[in-house]
Amino acid sequence: MKTKLFFLIILISLFSCSKKDEKESTNLKNERNDSVEKILNLSKSKPSFFEKKKLIDKAYEIVSNGDNSLQSRNYLSKIIFEYYYINDLESVNNTSKYLLKLSKKTNDSINLGVAYRSKAFYFKSKNVLDSSFYYYFKSEKLYQNLNDRLNLANVLLNKGMVQYKGGNNLGAELSLTRAQNLFNELNEQQKLFETLIVLGNVSEELKEFDKSLIYYTKALEKAKELEKESKTHREAICYNNIGFVYEKLNDYNKAIQNFNLGLKDIGIRKDLPDLYANLLDNLAYSKLKTNKTEGLPQMFYTSLKIRDSLNSISNIIVSNIHLSQYYASIGNIKTAEKYAKNALKISRTSKTPIDILLSLQQASDVDISNASNYNKEYVKLSDSLQVIERKSKDRFASIELETEEIKQENQGLAEKNRNLLYIFVVSFILVVLLFVVRAQRARTRELLYKQAQQKANEDIYNLMMSQQAIIDESRSKEKKRLAQDLHDGVLGRMFGLRLNLDSLNSSTEAEAVQKRFELLNELKTIEQDIREISHDLNREKQVLINNFVSIVHNLLEEQKTSFEANVTYTIDENVVWDKIGNAIKINMYRILQEGLQNINKYANANNIFVEIKGDKENVYLKIQDDGIGFDVNRKSKGIGMQNMISRTHDCKGIIDIYSKKDNGTKIVITIPIETKPIIVEQE
């Protein structure tokens, strides 16, 4: 019979891992933060449960009346921790609910994990195993996504214990093995020790006693290492468990040896009286089995007395059963019946099925007259217990299925499903291949079209540039010819005329003198006007800096003369167009041309404003009108607008379109300057 302490050293590591630092602005005032911190610190110094609870409740009230900030949620986690330490389970549950609600609203994964684990701990304490399993399963998935291995390992340990208590030993072994691997990688020796102990328990339930001994032996090795740091009686626990396995294997001598080793730890009677009672009862039972009755039945009575003082119901039942077995072995059937019936009475009061089964079995062994009734009750209860265990396993499986997509294995349909899957996969691959081929062909055609369009644009631009160059050259020659004619011809003659008139100025007649003076002044004025005309004709306009600017200028002037809308434009004279690549110039010209065409076709505008400017990094084009506007949020855009967007993207630029109904349209294009390479000719 099993009388070891399963949960003695498996302390629930609800808050064993410190939270990760998280920076988040908080609206809590410093005064309130200090107040909560002081209250929680003060509660730790109070000796009584009620004083501690009163202070923790006050801290909870302050935090719950505040905002949903990170600081508030962190305080709630601390408050749950304090409730946990005073064993106020209902407050743990209520605070966890509130923290869960706040954490979900803000996607606070760290505190959400604390809330899940706190809920799981609460339900485990209440023995509501399916709900506990659900929240441990939720926190497991959360920590997996966060890649928080330490918290994940702790959750797996606790989840495994819940599965073990629920009778799902295979599931428990899987969870605990994962926890063992993680604790081993993280070098968490204490947690590794706890996990090995529970794995040994699970192996016992699976009747794999050799494996159980391996786990307990490894745990004992860890215990000896850990005992150097702190005395927590881990070795005594291991010896008790190892001895119990040997007891199961009917190797009572080795069992006695290990129980005695455990009892050598003299501190356990004071520190862990329940462990001491277990070791003493187990030792007495093994002695009984080997007919070594020295110290019996006093050892059984001592163990029972300790268990009575601790109100350890299951262990009290075990002590009564052992006493019944002892008195049956020495022929005192009446006393044996007394202790068997006592065990049965207590187990029925506690309503623990496994304890009732053990008591019924012992009662049927010693009370022969009622053995038949006891056996019937035993069979009935055993069957119902198996059903309950199956249902418990099914609930765990159901929770996993509801939380995670798991394929149902159906042997009869497996082959058909595989064939359907193969057909689907092959069909899908063919469809994907066809789609990829068609997409690739379309992409190729698009690239060829763009290349052709680019070449056509280059050719058109080069043609326009060469045509404009011829025009500018002819214009320049004509200007120079006119300047020379004016300067050398007209000005020369005018200058000679002024000299002649000046020589006639010696006439003394007043009227002649006055007349000549007026003529001289008029000639000077004409001379100055002609000189200015000559200089203007010979000076290059700064507005027409180069051929590109001339082309844009001509386009805008043609817009002025061809359409009714008033056109106002400015071109920044400081832009060095010779350093800007032809592709940018072509696309800017096409965008401007397309923008003007759209205004002429659809905008019904009275005024058009065009601005071209630049700086060291970008060149900017703005086209604005006061027309009817359009909805910029509509999904489908015209071909013209799509072309403008496409050309902007080809130049790696940004296009911003602002428009509202009856409120005009403004298009702002920003294109980064890609300067042409400078070629240095070598002699």
Describe the structure.
The protein is mainly α. 71% of the residues lie in helices and 5% in strands. The chain has 24 helices and five strands. The protein has a five-stranded mixed beta sheet, with helices on one face. It is elongated and about 175 Å long. The model is unreliable at 1-29, 404-408, 539-545 and 676-683 (pLDDT under 50).
Task: Using brief descriptors, characterize the structure shown.
disordered N terminus; 683 residues; 5-stranded mixed β-sheet; disordered C terminus; 24 helices; 71% helix; 5% strand
Number of helices: 24
Shape: elongated
Order of helices and strands: HHHHHHHHHHHHHHHHHHHHHHEHEEHEE
Main beta-sheet strand count, sense and barrel state: 5 strands, mixed
Low-confidence sequence ranges: 1-29, 404-408, 539-545, 676-683
Write the layout of secondary structure elements.
Blueprint: H1 30-45, H2 49-64, H3 70-85, H4 89-106, H5 109-125, H6 129-146, H7 149-165, H8 169-186, H9 189-205, H10 209-227, H11 234-248, H12 252-263, H13 268-271, H14 273-289, H15 298-310, H16 313-329, H17 333-350, H18 353-366, H19 371-403, H20 411-503, H21 510-538, H22 547-562, E1 566-571, H23 582-603, E2 607-614, E3 618-625, H24 639-650, E4 654-659, E5 665-672
Parallel strand pairs: 1-2
Antiparallel strand pairs: 2-3, 3-5, 4-5
